[in-house]
Design brief:
The protein is mainly β. It is built from 2 helices and 11 strands. A 6-stranded mixed β-sheet has the order 8-1-2-11-10-9.
Length: about 150
């Protein structure tokens, strides 16, 4: 165990899956992870909005990360989760296929061409450790595009 005051603090990330893509958010960007809630759909609504659900005493839009990444939306499964993130003094529930683990990464790089098939800037960086890589989501781009389109 290292105790040096100069040592860089390792940041933990929540890994989650959206289709075949492993994504991650810094643990301090996540308020809560919950099982899928009942969602009331709205006909002719925006495709990235799965519908509405009560959360923390308010009715909020439930956002599909699959659709925001350009993937087709799918039915929920027992592993579907909602990652609740704070955003602009409110909370936004993000639907993901599954939440996998809490990890620390040892190296980061700019997104490669493979990650550019998604919205430009949606991944801040690509994180690597010994057994996998994950796209670190940029919530400002992910949710900023959503609020601009509404």
């Amino acid at each position: 165990m290292k105790t040096s005051m100069d040592e860089e603090v390792q940041i933990q990330y929540i890994n989650f899956s959206v289709g075949n893509q492993i994504c991650a958010l810094r643990i301090d960007e996540v308020h809560e992870i919950i099982k899928m809630l009942p969602v009331t759909t709205v006909p002719f609504g925006s495709p990235e909005i799965k519908g509405f659900t009560p959360l923390y005493g308010k009715v909020v839009s439930v956002v599909s990360v699959r659709v925001l990444l350009g993937l087709p939306d799918e039915e929920t499964t027992p592993s579907t989760r909602i990652i609740v993130v704070p955003y602009h003094d409110d909370y936004v529930p993000l639907v993901v296929d599954s939440v996998d683990s809490v990890v620390m990464y040892d190296r980061f790089e700019e997104p490669t061409e493979e990650y550019r098939r998604y919205t430009t800037g949606i991944f801040k960086e690509i994180a690597h450790n010994d057994d996998h890589e994950a796209g670190i989501l940029n919530l400002d781009v992910l949710l900023g595009n959503l609020t601009k389109s509404q």
